[in-house]
Design a protein that fits this description.
- It is a single chain.
- The chain has 371 residues and is an alpha+beta fold.
- Helices cover 27% and strands 27% of the residues.
- It has ten helices and 19 strands.
- Helix 1 packs across helix 5 and helix 8 packs parallel to helix 9.
Length: 371
């Protein structure tokens, strides 16, 4: 299920916005224009699939911090709306504050108000899931529309609560796809970073969001798959003459680098520079044996030397042949390199009257050149 369009309303600086997405979507802009809010919409949608949406919003400071701070129509209820279109399917969730005196929620916690999952086919639309408050109706494989008797709390999403793949196969498929998304924005490279330590030697086809299994990802490519052509090319592209050293794991997997100026010495992960280690982590995320359905990168250029931006762009463009990638950056140089190697038009993000907007985006949710 490829993400075709994203919609959001009343979330932080996103008053009301909808825009198409492709195999590689690149947003570029200065600090403070709301690029990260676009990225966070995807993270919140995944949280809805996991059943942790209310908790995610609470960690942001709750509804009073997450909701659009600008003017609203008089009497308009406080609602954050998040939605994704997958072509044949579309999912939407609306979050608000508890009704005064309403049961099942603390006074200030985010409260799931509505959810829908639609299936679009042959010009018709079928509701696979409809939730209004505590009432949930879903379409079962053999029973048709049924009222689902679940004791959902006001803070729980219906999508996150469905765990019957045989009875509700389409809901299960969408939820599983969304849970497979990976968000690589917290790849720490400090002295205590998981990237710098060996990890358990367990076959790892996909890199964890924090990079904690990076060594196992490399070992899987080298010793299980036996194919490191793309990985070797990415390292040579960034660090000419250097090679990645991945010993056969015992109980733990590890890696290091052999640099051309010291050909007889292996520099362990704990010794590598922040920029080198971050590039290797991005290579592990993007060249792993099995890529997730969707990869989101938030400012991947952080800590990288400017000379690494073109190799990074080529690495990202190569990965976009295998999965869908969403990238947010404030580096014009990286955006230009992605335009060159990824054959994609980076979208400039800016603010107008406090509202995040995308250059060339029309109110109907299409870009000017697409009209």
């Amino acid at each position: 299920m490829i993400v075709r369009e994203i919609r959001a309303a009343n979330y932080r600086s996103l008053r009301s916005i909808r825009f198409p997405t492709g195999p590689l979507t690149v947003f570029v802009g200065a600090n403070g224009v709301g690029k990260t809010n676009l990225y966070r919409v995807l993270k919140l949608l995944q949280a809805a699939a996991a059943g942790t949406l209310s908790r995610e919003l609470a960690t942001e400071g709750g509804m009073q911090s997450a909701v659009w701070a600008g003017r609203r129509r008089a009497g308009q209820p406080v609602r954050i709306v998040l939605a994704a279109d997958f072509g044949d399917h579309s999912y939407e969730v609306a979050v608000g504050v508890p009704s005064p005196g309403g049961p099942g929620a603390f006074p200030l916690e985010p409260h799931i108000k509505e959810e829908t999952l639609l299936f679009h086919h042959g010009g018709r639309t079928t509701k696979l899931l409809e939730r209004r408050g505590p009432s949930v109706i879903a379409r079962a494989a053999e029973e048709g529309r049924v009222e689902v008797s679940r004791e959902l709390l006001a803070s729980e999403t219906a999508l996150g609560a469905f765990d019957e793949p045989q009875r509700f196969p389409e809901l299960h498929a969408l939820r599983r796809t969304m849970l497979d998304w990976r968000f690589y924005h917290s790849l720490r490279t400090d002295a205590d970073s998981a990237l710098r330590r060996p990890c358990l030697a367990v076959t790892s086809p996909t890199m964890a969001s924090d990079g904690s299994n990076l060594a196992a990802v490399f070992a899987t490519l080298v010793h299980i798959r036996g194919d490191t052509v793309d990985l070797d090319r990415a390292i040579e592209d960034a660090f000419p003459g250097a090679t990645l050293d991945v010993p056969l794991p015992g109980r733990e997997a590890s890696f290091g680098m052999v640099l051309p100026e010291h050909p007889k010495r292996v520099f362990e992960a704990s010794e590598l520079s922040d920029g080198t280690l971050r590039y290797l982590a991005l290579a592990g995320a993007l060249l792993a044996l099995r890529l997730p359905a969707f990869v989101a990168l938030n400012e991947p250029e952080s800590s990288l030397h400017p000379d690494l931006l073109e190799p990074l762009a080529r690495l990202i463009a190569k990965a976009a042949e295998r999965t869908q990638i969403w990238l947010v950056t404030h580096s014009e140089r990286l955006a230009a390199a992605l335009a060159k190697y990824g054959q994609v038009q980076p979208r400039s993000v800016f603010k107008r009257e406090g509202e995040t907007w995308i250059e060339g985006l029309k109110a109907i949710g299409r870009f000017e050149e697409d009209e």
